[in-house]
Amino acid sequence: MPASSATSVPVFKLYGETQHWPTPDLLHCESIAERSQLHDWHIRPHRHADLVHILFIAQGSVELALEGTNHQLQSASAIVVPAMAIHGFIFSPDVQGHIITLAKPLADHLHALLGENSTLKKADFYPLSQTNRAERIATLVTQIDQEYRQPAPGRHSLLEALIQALVVELSRLGAHTGSAAKRYGPRQRDKGRQHLEQYQALIEAHYREQPSIEQLAEQIGVSSAHLNLLCRQLTGRSALQLLHERLLLEAKRQLTYTNMTIGQVSDSLGFSEPAYFTRFFKRNTKFSPREFRSRQNNSIASSKEVPDQAN
């Protein structure tokens, strides 16, 4: 696909959504049916600027479009879709399985832990019917789904451990079975994508300092106007919006998973005063930090009162 047409591919947070990442977690887990049935089982080609998908298909079939190639998967399989990879699916209505979406900070953390053995930066798929890892992968996905839906003490740590185990299993699978990406070849990254990756890495390293876009653009070696245009073309958001989204995600995480005061959260994220942080947070979520924390605590408390229906 020519580079000019690639920029016209829709960019979503989760498919069909253009709003902020919907959870304070660095991952999102749902059954494939939950979203795809809303779209008549057809997820049209699109991409994500800062998300990585791991799909586990336990039953049913899927017609997979992945970086310009089409594949018909008829049995149990796993699919990895890295950030910026163009992908689409047509699922059979009897499909059973899950899609786990990783926010870029978590995906980058896992990639750094596993190094070049990580599967998270390669668009790929793995048939599972002929391997002895299918049951282990299915178990890990089920555990991730259950832990994600039932908040409990230590949830964040356990989710990270489970997703790390899953990525290790997928990496071993890729080494054992051979890579579809090797057969079809990765699309060569152009300068624009390289600059975006540099900018995302700088955001992750410095977002707590709230640097100016001009400062970050200078480190990349482009003008702030060019960086802003590039971000809008490839992600659908401005350079400042990408920085603010990372700040907002971390604010949600700290309000949900720590006992830090509002002032402490504000200071840790580089705001000059709590009132400014509160205005920023409310403008982006429609809730004050205190209201958001109260809603999260109530949600966790109510989930503990509901017996686990799986047992």
TrEMBL record:
InterPro entries: AraC-bd, Cupin_HpaA-like_N, Homeodomain-like_sf, HTH-like, HTH_AraC, RmlC-like_jellyroll. Signal peptide: none annotated. Residues 291-311 are annotated as: Disordered. Keywords: DNA-binding, Transcription, Transcription regulation. CDD domains: cupin_HpaA-like_N. Residues 197-295 form the HTH araC/xylS-type domain. SUPFAM superfamilies: Homeodomain-like (SSF46689), Regulatory protein AraC (SSF51215). This is Helix-turn-helix domain-containing protein. It comes from Vreelandella janggokensis.
